[in-house]
Amino acid sequence: MNQSLRYAANQRGMTLIEIMVVIAIIGILSTAIGVGVVNFMQKAKVDSAKAQLRTVANGVDLYAAENDFPTDLRDVLEKKYVQEKQLKDPWKEDLIYSYPASRNSDNQYDLCSKGPDKVEGSEDDICNN
């Protein structure tokens, strides 16, 4: 009997403090990973919007080569130079098209996405520069 008491006294489990430290470390690591994933996803959407604007701009340029510049992106859609799903940015907002250009002096027209904040005219707008 004496021997079993000594054996039990020598066994140690994790204390409450040790468990709390492990949980805190796991929480810090998961937060850091979560922030990294969110930033990566945001950058991926911006890159996708830029590629989409290039594709739609190519459709506008093809339309302009056969006609004049379109008054609306629906004109380009009707001639099948773009697909309807390409007229919305990754944030599910309509692309903004204006002819003649008012923002961008390098192009004859403006083609923009409102960007992550979904507000036209803000700093995060993505345009066909």
Structural summary, described in words:
By secondary structure, the chain is mainly alpha-helical. It has a single domain (16-127), classed as Glycoprotein, Type 4 Pilin (2-Layer Sandwich), CATH 3.30.700.10. Helices cover 51% and strands 7% of the residues. It contains 3 helices and 3 strands. It has helices at residues 2-10, 16-66, 73-78; strands at 96-98, 110-113, 126-127. The protein has a 3-stranded antiparallel sheet, covered by helices on one side. The longest helix is centred in the first third of the chain and has 51 residues, at 16-66. It is rod-shaped.
Summarize the structure.
The protein is mainly α.
Key terms:
129 residues, mainly alpha, Glycoprotein, Type 4 Pilin, three-stranded antiparallel beta sheet
Distance between the termini: 85 Å
Low-pLDDT ranges: none
CATH homologous superfamily grouping: Glycoprotein, Type 4 Pilin
Alpha-carbon Rg, integer: 28 Å
| Fraction in helix | 40-55%
Protein structure class: mainly alpha
Strand content: 5-15%
CATH class wording: Alpha Beta
Number of domains: 1
In which order are the strands of the major sheet placed?
1-2-3
Mean pLDDT: 86
Describe the global form.
rod-shaped
- Number of DSSP-assigned strands: 3
SSE order in H/E notation? HHHEEE
Query: Treating each run of at least 4 consecutive H or I residues as one helix, how many helices?
Result: 3
Give the second-level CATH assignment, the architecture. Answer: 2-Layer Sandwich
CATH topology: Glycoprotein, Type 4 Pilin
Largest sheet: 3 strands, antiparallel
